[in-house]
Amino acid sequence: MLDLYQHSIDLIRTNQSANGAYVASPSFPTYHYCWFRDGTYIAYAMDLVGEHTSARRFYDWAAAMVTQRAAAVERAIAAAPYGQPAPEDLLDTRYTLDGAVGTDDWPNFQLDGFGTLLWGMREHLRINRAALPSEWRPAIELLARYLGALWQLPCYDCWEEFGDKIHTATLAALYGGLEAAAALLNTSEYATTAAAIKAFVLDHCVAGESLSKFVGSPLVDASLIHVATPYRLLAPDHPLMRNTITRIERELRRDGGVHRYAEDSYYGGGEWVLLTAYLGWYYVETGVLHRAHELLSWIERRATQNGALPEQVAANLNYPEMLPVWNERWGTSACPLLWSHAAYLTLYTLLHSQ
Ligand code: BGC
């Protein structure tokens, strides 16, 4: 039987380019890019499994990508009080594997990945008990100031959708990132911004007894798991967090795997491997280990014969009629998705270190 743990590590290693970038999916042309969001979660998993050099190479690459855009970032920060900065001054969401920015039309204004990156850098240094590399410092400072200036603007969410909304999970990533930057650079200003973000979430991102997908939405989204795990805007056992998880279980999980949100129609809106793993991670943190084990084994049963984990499984689709539409547009959905493998490794490692 194929060892999914080792295979996942090998797959990620093989698909890291020479400069350190990880491709989101080697076999799905639309994802032939590196995102800081996917990349950081992949690097985090590599750190957990002991592949520290791989993680370090990714962070070095990402830091260089940010630093080389310093002049644009400064213009964006200066423009922020007057609304969304000029598109050419925004930091980019996706990069080709040789470090250029993606050129085709794409919803580029997404802030969560920069918070995720800052969080991941701190985790890398914590896991490796390493000091802050001097060449990361300017990137961390630029990112923290950029997020501090822009966090109140609507932007695309972690699913690259709803660009006119303010998203709770995005704010959580920014919170986690700014807390990390404050700790790494010993700058209380970033912690003050993080505290303002938390206050905003508690005031504006709550629907009834649970968190909401975006300001004004009555719905939940499974990315809300990240509000606690890993970004700790709320503790995992905070009542709002518990109620949110209960709703995710009830509304977004019918048969094992976790959907993104009820109205999701991307490839019909299937069950996402990485969200299933992150729900498991939440259960590890709250000590509900039997649930975490169930979710891990659900994921293992979703691997293809070659050991590939897909982005999503076409089961219990929200909108079955949309599956052929997407198949026609972009080909069959991403498989393997490196982020899915990384999320699996994360859950596996954390569960087995209990
Ligand atoms: C997802 C993003 C992800 C990208 C690459 C998109 O479909 O919504 O979250 O970063 O794919 O995996």
Can I get a quick summary?
This protein has 354 residues and is mainly alpha-helical. The chain has a single domain (4-352), classed as Glycosyltransferase, CATH 1.50.10.10.
What attributes does this structure have?
6 strands, Glycosyltransferase, binds beta-D-glucopyranose, mainly alpha, 13 helices, 354 residues, two-stranded antiparallel ribbon, 3% strand
Overview of this protein structure:
The protein is mainly α and 354 residues long. The protein has a single domain, classed as Glycosyltransferase (Alpha/alpha barrel), CATH 1.50.10.10. Helices cover 50% and strands 3% of the residues. The strands form three sheets. A two-stranded antiparallel ribbon has the order 1-2. A two-stranded antiparallel ribbon has the order 3-4. A hairpin with a 2-residue loop joins strand 3 and strand 4 (210-211). The longest helix is centred in the middle third of the chain and has 18 residues, at 168-185. It is globular, with a radius of gyration of 19 Å. It starts with a helix and ends with a helix. 50% of the residues are buried. The mean pLDDT is 97. Residues 24, 31, 35, 37-38, 158-160, 337, 339 line the site of beta-D-glucopyranose. Beta-D-glucopyranose is lined by residues 24, 31, 35, 37-38, 158-160, 337, 339.
